[in-house]
TrEMBL record, chains A, B:
Organism name: Flavobacterium lipolyticum
Gene field: hisD
Binding-site list for substrate: 233, 255, 258, 323, 356, 410, 415
InterPro entries for this protein: Ald_DH/histidinol_DH (IPR016161), Histidinol_DH_CS (IPR001692), Histidinol_DH_monofunct (IPR022695), Hstdl_DH (IPR012131)
Upper taxonomic lineage: Bacteria, Pseudomonadati, Bacteroidota, Flavobacteriia, Flavobacteriales
Protein name per UniProt: Histidinol dehydrogenase
Pathway(s) of this molecule: Amino-acid biosynthesis; L-histidine biosynthesis; L-histidine from 5-phospho-alpha-D-ribose 1-diphosphate: step 9/9
Functional summary from the UniProt entry: Catalyzes the sequential NAD-dependent oxidations of L-histidinol to L-histidinaldehyde and then to L-histidine.
SUPFAM superfamilies, per the entry: ALDH-like
Length: 430, 430
């Protein structure tokens, strides 16, 4: 752990720097696979499924038998937990629905804004050691509330050609319309171009390794939208002597177990707390099954002492953490002052893992400083806002001349003409 | 004009195909300039300003003298028109403010969503023959309502080192905090990396030629967000015999004058109307100063006859037009059924140019089929939504076990542990 004492302002950007990766070599691979899937469709998907997942599949779509099988293989306990989480996610995202916004800007000029669902979306759920069924909930629940018509889920098959049953259970529960056993770059390419087996979608959501991340970025060059650019997961905790060191340590470790590149930062106005947390980390880390990963991440972690809460807040806003835990007597000060963060966790009994699973907030959040310019996934991620206007004869007479003058000043005569013709016809009739 | 009669479903995608451009050769130039600006800052900006704009500037920032000069050079008539437009844009975008959304998902588990402004934004306004001061209003007004702290505007200088006075007037009126005489790729690169003269921003908005478009796309690879990917402007009109052919023709032409690559489509259930509009276009086009451009665009335009309104609607949703005018006795049918469009104009007295300038809706809209997955610029484009959660001791006891079960099932022991520790401490105390 790197302890940093009262860093000067001009060192902040260096201290808060995230490790950057060169993606140039990955990009070449991703582009090649994209080209091949675009050209050869399922044939290319089969080829790369065989190379990367080590299996040949006759059918990519998960069958209803497989879903039933998954259903019966999951414990009732896990099902109940998933249902509770789903319920809370549903409640919070339903509350985000917005009404039509309508206003008469000038007499006779009615303007309104309405939201319409994105018709076809794709969810990518990684396979591997951690089957992220929680991410299925986080994406499919709001997609359902939004009214997306086609919800396609791609996840890589394991060596026996299966997808983790909890993923299948969650997907079925949340109304995913098609589940496909396709992973990695070939899944993203498939959803970008469409193949015989994989539907083309308009927007792709979900996490993934760096190949998937680069593939999603590339997809945007072919007209597909994505939820947000991705980077390693991050947690920043601000804590003072009102915090419980063991709890803070457990939160930092829950972040650290994600990956060796996870970013873990503690900011405090109390040197005593920093020391206590450091000790607790050393104790708790030994018990973790993912100890090796957590240790690597903790090695790069930062414990930063600052003189007061204003400095702490400024530094946190400069960093823009994905997850931000506040365990401070001044929690209101931080809540009101935080501008750049993905999701905020307040108080000693609000661990980050609550938001990861079951509080109801979304866990798909901006990393890598993107909290400065991107929202986390929310209901609006699944809709588009459209505007409407209806102008009466009186309305166009009120604003027509302003349009004519502005169009003329911009040198756009036909724009002016569209108004002039209408005004003239009204005058002639009038 | 291409008249298409009752096209079969399987020909739609061919008929509605937009021209695609290869950007590979542009990309090389853009990447080079980015690299140079990243490395050499203002020195590179000066070099490319000299190459592309043909001028050497000592100072990129517009001075207060230049602003005063611009102010006094604009007619009172134009100022009044700009003020009217600004007022309507302000009203419509202010109405889009959303309250904090707060909900107790489980007893003791409080979740809320709040929006915070993006702190630093950049607006790009092209120079050239059409000085788009209206776009300044469309971007700077909502940025001001959102509370963005730094609003930087870049626009290329003309040969005498000036920016069009109407652009300066609109920018000052709307609270732009810094106006810079920098254009093209070097402006986008400057706002991406920051130079001595050009502040680094978090999100870049605004139109531009294909160099600017590619530059904005590249900026996203360096952590900057953009408003949306851009393409040539588009208009689709659906009209029946209740429409006035001269009005429809004037709208189609107002779109056609934008550029030779503008997309202009008329869909109708009336062959009579199609013929009448065609005639009107031929008359009106001769009067336009930008006749040459409009004629090229009209050559590629499409007049599509379909048998009924349901087919028309399906076809329009398949296309996803940027601008969509409805002049039909069934306007409600189209308003309710349209899913993919940027902005919708209803009735004979609602020309597209009203939305371009003064109705109050935003004119920065998704083109190129992006209406299927992107919103037009609106108040939310200038903010990020953040989530908060605060869980009480009772709350964590209610959802804690679900979190433990799910974390364990995902193989994330430290995530579970963060909850277990808290539950245990409550049990011990309780």
């Amino acid at each position: 752990m790197n302890k940093i004492n009262n860093p000067k302002l001009d060192t902040w950007s260096e201290i808060l720097k995230r490790p950057t990766k060169t993606i140039d070599d990955i990009e070449v691979t991703v582009k090649e696979i994209f080209k091949e899937v675009q050209k050869k469709g399922d044939e290319a998907v089969a080829k790369y499924t065989s190379i990367f997942d080590g299996i040949a599949l006759e059918n990519y779509e998960v069958s209803s038998e497989e879903i039933q099988e998954a259903n019966s293989s999951i414990s009732e306990e896990l099902k109940a937990a998933i249902l509770l989480a789903k319920e809370n996610i549903y409640k919070f995202h339903s509350a985000q629905k917005t009404d039509k916004i309508s206003i008469e800007t000038t007499e006779g000029v009615n303007c309104w804004q309405e939201k319409r669902p994105i018709q076809k979306i794709g969810l990518y759920i990684p396979g591997g050691t951690a089957p992220l069924f929680s991410t299925v909930l986080m994406l499919a629940v709001p997609a359902g509330i939004a009214g997306c018509k086609e919800i396609v889920l791609c996840s890589p098959p394991d060596k026996s050609g299966k997808i983790n049953p909890a993923i299948l259970y969650a997907a079925t529960l949340c109304g995913v319309t098609k589940i496909l056993k396709v992973g990695g770059i070939q899944a993203i390419a498939g959803m970008t171009f469409g193949t015989k087996s994989i539907p083309k979608v308009y927007k792709i959501f979900g996490p993934g390794n760096q190949f998937v991340t680069v593939a999603k970025q590339l997809a945007t060059q072919f007209g597909v939208a994505i939820d947000m650019p991705a980077g390693p997961s991050e947690l920043l905790v601000v804590a003072d002597d009102t915090a419980v060191p063991a709890f803070v340590a457990s939160d930092l470790l829950s972040q650290a177990e994600h990956g060796t590149d996870s970013q873990v930062i503690l900011v405090s106005t109390s040197k005593r707390l920093i020391q206590a947390v450091e000790k607790e980390i050393q104790i708790q880390i030994e018990e973790l099954p993912r100890k090796a990963i957590a240790k690597k991440a903790i090695e790069n972690s930062k414990l930063i002492y600052v003189e007061n809460d204003q400095i702490a807040l400024d530094l946190i806003n400069e960093y823009g953490p994905e997850h931000f835990i506040i365990c401070s007597q001044y929690d209101d000060f931080y809540c009101n002052g935080i501008i750049n963060a993905g999701s905020v966790f307040i108080g000693n009994y609000t661990p980050e893992s609550a938001g990861d699973y079951a509080s109801g907030t979304n866990h798909t959040l901006p990393t890598n400083g993107y909290a400065k310019n991107y929202s986390g996934v929310n209901l609006d991620s699944f809709v588009k806002s459209m505007t409407f206007q209806k102008i009466s004869k009186e309305g166009i007479q009120k604003i027509g001349s302003a349009i004519e003058i502005m169009a003329e000043a911009e040198g756009l005569q036909a724009h002016k003409n569209a108004v002039t013709l209408r005004l003239k016809s009204l005058k002639e009739r009038g």
